[in-house]
Specification:
six-stranded antiparallel β-sheet; single chain; alpha+beta; 10 strands; 4 helices; 183 residues
Length: 183
């Protein structure tokens, strides 16, 4: 039986994390909600805040459908590479298949930060190395964490630079807190 949100995997103290989620295949907003529920229901992350879902233009490889993007804050006991393995497992379990870089995807879960930790590895760099270049991450992250600074940079100030970007809140499809397993 998977642990509920009170039984997080791993050992040690809780660390605040930020996640970026995106989808442009099928029920895009539903895919984001399902990924958050799986992360929480499996004891990977205790979700503490979820941004609105935003409709965004594709980035990198532009010959594809629009994306739904959101950010979430949470707590985990997992170390960065353990968290990466767990988020990758959720992506695979939801049906994500390898495709071209920045191409269409059922779900994409990026770890944006892991506490105040600077982490550099071939598979993962934290804070996320492209975080401050992407409106589809900064705008939702600034919505739920306007006072957050990463590597000495204000997320809110960085998001303001993208005021003219084609990013808009999804019409009325707001995310709902994932099921916590509590009765």
């Amino acid at each position: 039986m998977p642990p509920n949100s009170l039984e997080l995997l791993g050992e040690g103290p809780l660390t605040q994390i930020g996640l970026g989620l995106g989808s442009n295949i099928g029920d895009k907003a539903g895919n984001i909600r399902r990924a958050l529920a799986l992360l929480q229901d499996r004891g990977i992350v205790r979700v503490t805040a979820i941004s609105s879902i935003y409709r965004t233009a594709p980035w990198g490889y532009v010959e594809q459908d629009f994306f739904a993007n959101a950010c979430a804050l949470g707590e985990t006991r997992l170390k960065p590479l353990e968290l990466l393995a767990a988020t990758n497992a959720v992506e695979r379990d939801m049906g994500r298949e390898p495709s071209v870089r920045w191409g269409p995807r059922l779900i994409d879960i990026d770890i944006l930060f892991h506490g105040d930790e600077r982490f550099e590895h071939a598979q993962l760099n934290l804070p996320h190395k492209a975080l401050f270049e992407r409106a589809f991450v900064l705008v939702p992250l600034a919505e739920i964490a306007p006072s957050l600074s990463l590597s000495g940079r204000s997320v809110k100030d960085a998001a303001a630079r993208f005021a003219d970007e084609p990013i808009e809140k999804w019409s009325s499809e707001e995310p709902k807190a994932p099921h916590s397993g509590e009765g």
